[in-house]
Amino acid sequence: MNINPINRINNITLRGKSEKQEPQTFKPQEDKLIKELDKMSMINNVNIGKKDFELNLSMEELEKRTHKDYLTTKKMLAADAPEYLELADGDKEALKHLVKAAVVLDKVNMQLDNPNNLQFKEYLESEITKGNEQAKLTKILFDAQKGVCALDRNSFMIELVKGVSERPGKGVYPQDLEKEEFHNILIAMLKDGKVDEVAKILNQRSVVERAGNALVAADYVDKFKDDFAYMASELEKAAETSTNEDFNEFLKLQAKALRTADPMLDAYADKKWAALQDTPLEFTITRENYSDELTETVVENPELKALLDENGITPVAKDFLGGRVGIINKKGTEAILNVKKFLPLMAQNMPFKDDYIQNISPDKESKQTMVDADLVAVTGDVGEFRAGITLAENLPNDDKLSIKELDGGRRNVYHRQIRLITSEDAREKMKKRLEATLNPELHKYYNDEADHWFTVGHENGHSLGPKSGTEGLGKYKSIIEENKADMISLAMVDILTEAGMYTPEQREQIIVTYAADNMMMSKPTLSQAHRVRSVMQNYYFIKEGAIEISPEGVLNVNIDKMVPTARKMLEEIIQVQMKGDFTKGEKYVNDYFVWTPEMEKMAENIKKVSKTLNGKVESPLADKLITE
């Protein structure tokens, strides 16, 4: 997944997300649907019963954070978008059901994120009916970040409720479970022969609760049974009218996987989804595991790790769930597909390629599909606007059974409405940022479309390099993987230019645009994998003389040194991944996660021209379809 850093400029920055605007209350149509779902499945709600909350942000802070200068907006397809109007009637009908299915993931993922989310949402709605202006503004931020706690673009944790903080285990573990107790419980359970129970606790698709002195895990499908059944029904309805048979087959497989807690059912659906190329519509249940900071800590405990290895248990961080509904843009897809013929060349040029297995074969047809999607709705994990919003995703990830057991492929989906800069205001902000941060002689090379080319390289980079064995890197695995994908994109630029994918001019644009977009407006926390990687790269490139930040905070780029430096860093990353050793991964991250005074000065310059702290998504077409 690539979460972009500006556009990275004002377009999309936050968890790695997008650009924004004025106060709005939660969509009434969406609320209506979720309330009906709540009636069907109150047993799934983490907290039962009414609860009062004390709002944490002052009116002054709320008015600032909800102002259009600070809260940017990304708009999905309009209700009368040509892309929608040109669809066949059957696909229009199917789209309605796909949106209704996707909206459910807002409710489900909010529970995975924090057990207070649903009740707090209900509390805010109640207070708003009473005329509580503080609740009204708080609701705007809650809807944008889809939760009570989230990091903003300055890496500041926004806590909307007093006394409610974000926990390492989010909502997938008991709120009072600390790391040391967690490890001790697992050790005791393993010594007591409860191997299957521990394996279920440490897999990516379960919610964990206390059971006396032990822990017990429930599969997502069982935990959210009624909600998933509703989604399955909507997908089945969509499959009745959609005009593409391959897409319909996928929808039916996905619906089946939502009804029964069997990981192999998801694997069959994933394999079919990853093979989709020529379909009018896009629907995805995304499953990515960047948010869980507790599961992978088990590799830090030598006794526990030895017991896990002895019992053949590989811990995998919990998946958080998102929904994506879109219309495939044929022109954009055609342009992106040009890279597919170069994937074997990229695989052939990977460092130490003979020492590991990668998803892309140097000498075979690539099991990689790619589409450019005009977005109708992004929900759940995909739609959270937390310090940024997702530009594109390469799924399924290597931990999924479709990859491990079925030899399935992967699929890249690119998000047009999130990456495109269409307003004059946004372009003016971009110009001001460049003036404040980039050597004037390099402005001619900056091209926001080059950020998209770089993203295409990044997403395909996830399919290259070691296919397995990186789980031992624990909490550093995601940081290192995202770093790898970036360095593949940059390290391959000269090879792809020579092969004809890029022109010499595009080569220079990609290099300079990457360097300019990689600058940060604050030092991130270690939980922000996509941002930590940027700091690591900047420090590494400074040490190698490929970039320089002046004492005034202005960036200069040595174009000729950029690609060789990326190649050198990539070689080091691959070696760390092949070893799969936690201590080596920790040392690698700590060696380069260095925030220098020059970076701080650059951050000050960025803040002078960009006030954006958070963002929100508006989905007019989806809102219309929900009510039909």
Summary tags:
628 residues; alpha+beta; two-stranded parallel ribbon; 12% strand
Task: Walk me through the structure.
The chain is of the alpha+beta class. The protein has one domain. The protein is built from 28 helices and 14 strands. The strands form five sheets. Strands 1-10-11-9-8-7 form a six-stranded mixed beta sheet. Strands 2-14 form a two-stranded parallel sheet. Strands 3-4 form a two-stranded antiparallel ribbon. Strand 3 and strand 4 form a beta hairpin. Helix 20 crosses helix 23 (504-517) and helix 21 packs across helix 24 (529-543). Mean pLDDT is 91; it is low at 4-28 and 39-49.
- Which structural class matches the secondary elements? alpha+beta
Percent in helix: 40-55%
Q: How many E-type strands?
A: 14
Return Rg in Å: 23 Å
Largest sheet: 6 strands, mixed
Separate helix tally:
28
Globally, the shape reads globular
Low-confidence stretches: 4-28, 39-49
- Please report which band the strand proportion falls in: under 5%, 5-15%, 15-25%, 25-35%, 35-45% or over 45%: 5-15%
Integer tally of domains: 1
Can you give the mean pLDDT? 91
Distance N to C terminus: 33 Å
Across the major sheet, the strand order is: 1-10-11-9-8-7
Q: In summary, what is this structure?
A:
The protein is of the alpha+beta class and 628 residues long. It has one domain. The model is unreliable at 4-28 and 39-49 (pLDDT under 50).
Write the layout of secondary structure elements.
Elements: E1 2-3, H1 28-40, H2 59-65, E2 71-75, H3 82-85, H4 89-113, H5 117-129, H6 133-145, E3 149-151, E4 157-159, H7 179-191, H8 195-201, E5 206-211, E6 214-219, H9 220-223, H10 225-241, H11 245-259, H12 263-274, E7 281-288, H13 302-310, E8 320-328, H14 330-337, H15 343-348, E9 368-379, H16 380-383, E10 390-395, H17 401-404, E11 410-415, H18 416-419, H19 424-437, H20 448-461, H21 477-491, H22 493-499, H23 504-517, H24 529-543, E12 547-549, E13 555-557, H25 559-579, H26 582-592, H27 597-609, E14 614-618, H28 620-627
Parallel strand pairs: 2-14, 9-11
Antiparallel strand pairs: 1-10, 3-4, 5-6, 7-8, 8-9, 10-11, 12-13
Helix pairs in contact: 1-4, 2-6, 4-10, 5-6, 7-13, 10-11, 11-12, 19-27, 20-21, 20-23, 21-24, 21-25
